[in-house]
Amino acid sequence: MKIIVIGGTGHIGTFLIPRLVKKGHEIMCVSRQLGMPYHADESWKSVKHITIDRNASEGQGDFGKQIKDLDGDVVIDLICFTPESAKMIAESLQDSIKHFLHCGTMWVHGHSEAVPTREDQPRKPFGEYGILKAEIEAYFLDQYNSSGFPVTILHPGHISGPGWLPINPAGHLDPNVFIKLANEEEVILPNLGMETVHHVHADDVALAFELAIDNPKKSIGESFHVVSEQALTLRGYAIAVAGWFNKEANLKFLPFDQWKETVTERDAELTWDHIAHSPNGSIEKARQLIGYQPNYSSLDAVKEAIKYHFDKENLPYRL
To answer: Structural domain boundaries of the chain?
Structure first.
């Protein structure tokens, strides 16, 4: 099939496009061409690159038409962030494609309540990103129910992998947390460290998109969580990371209002966003309908990312 991937040079596309090429699909990668995939792969030589600045094109009102004119069988949209963008592309592609796949987020659920969270639980999103992604999901599913728009929605957790920093055991992105754990230095966690984070390796997200394309009768009209087998508590995460270096985790705990004074404002914002959501998603629906079985645990995904970072920065820590 001819597959168009919008935003294909990012985290997910780095792994997804080679998977699709190896399945024999013809791939067109739509991006601003400001960067290349995180990792080289021979498969990219057969990919046709289309340069489109989505924001500029949407401002002119012709992005949907540009995608339609590429005449694909399947469109994968990895960078749709507003209901207006969703509406523009859905209206343009109605009745002209076999399958449309949208990348959502676990953030559509808002605060975790009953866990592991299932896809059919009520949506109570908060924060601009989660609210807009929930609105997009609702719009696409309404289009499926009202006019048969062939959409599948995949909701990743904290995407991790070699080439970018993962969410750390303190809930933000500072790699020094990993270094402190490797050195058995004190690491302060918010509250009791019992909030959760739910990572997923970018290649497992790519796998889920591939499986959804392979199983359209079971995936169209559905949304799926795409996360690892189990979420991690911040405390358990920190203990495991220290164990990679044969060290004990030297942990201290503070109520969040006191803890936030120990980090930068940006780190505090990121941690609050993560612990307020405390995602813990079920993958049972994806397993049953499309055969999704992640190859990486949360810790496996993080370990690969941190090893890559330490090696790249020539830090004296070996995993």
So the answer is: 2-159+199-226, 162-197+231-278+297-312
Looking from the CA of 173 toward its CB, the CA atoms found within 13 Å total 12
pLDDT digits 0-9 by tens, 4-50: 999 999 999 999 999 999 999 999 999 987 666 777 778 888 999 99
Classify the phi-psi angles of 311: left when phi > 0, otherwise alpha if psi is within -120 to 50, otherwise beta. alpha
CB 292 within 8 A of CB 210: no
Q: Are 39 and 161 in contact (CB under 8 A)?
A: no
Task: With CA atoms as reference, report the closest residue to 39 among 142, 163, 152.
Answer: 163
pLDDT category at 261 given cuts 50, 70, 90 is very high
Rounded Cα distance between 255 and 299, Å, is 26
CA 264, distance to chain mean position in Å, is 25
CB 198 within 8 A of CB 280: yes
Any idea which fold 2-159+199-226 has?
A: Rossmann fold (3.40.50)
